[in-house]
Amino acid sequence: MKRGMKEVYTHGHHASVVNSHAKRTAESCAAFLLRRNICQENSTRLLDVGCGPGTITAGLAKYCAKVDALDNAPEIVERARAEAERAHVADKVSVQAASVYELPFEDETFDVVYTHQVLQHLVDPVAALVEMRRVLKVGGVVAVREADYSSMLVFPEMAAVDMWRRVYRATCVSNKAQPDAGRYLRHWAMQAGFGESALDLDFSTVSYTTLEECREWGQSWQQRALHSAFSAQAQEYGHASKEELQRMSDDWAAWAEKPGACFYYVNGEILATKE
Description:
This protein is of the alpha/beta class. It has helices spanning 15-21, 26-29, 31-34, 55-60, 74-86, 125-134, 159-174, 185-191, 211-227, 229-236, 242-255, and strands at 45-49, 66-71, 93-97, 110-116, 136-155, 199-208, 262-273. Helices cover 39% and strands 24% of the residues. It has a seven-stranded mixed β-sheet, sandwiched between helices. One of its GO terms (molecular function) is S-adenosylmethionine-dependent methyltransferase activity.
């Protein structure tokens, strides 16, 4: 962590969070990178910043010669290592605990630096991008995907789910983070030293439309509203009471069983080339 900087991870590492993150795949979360054929199995060295439980990391290893991954939570690093073993890519993957602000690599080490839903939790996302750019080779690409929480909508509408969106965003802001990071990506990348002409920004949607998808998402937030770091922080900052968080939990559980339920949101996705 950068000296003097206090980071608070809004989600935390409750099982309801980590298990949800473990459902992520390279094919779904890094499609904007993979479809460009930038990664080459026989040559590309990639850094995955904020790897979480490692399912995306293991997936990216199928497309690269070597993948280095890091997270700032030692217990999550161990889970990511176990995932690489489970996916039979441990020979191509190296995982360690480290800060995004002080990457433990020499200048111009990587062909690609990838990060997924990380900048939204940082006090200084521009400093993180500067550090990612430092370890990137000239001609290499930083690939970033970030959600925009303002865009998160459900059908049928539920009053306490709408309250959840407001409270979650307020809690992130109290953590000095930016929950709508997706829309900031080009601005931040330019501040970090990337030329505007070297930035390829796009937006995509994530949707949960099947009964199984809605149940998984709703049940995850049913638990998070009561037991995750977000719940504790929301109460500490005065953004929600215990009773309000209980209503959020109940509404998420009820929504997950509603006929025709769906949930969707927008991600910003940027490929930033180091010139």
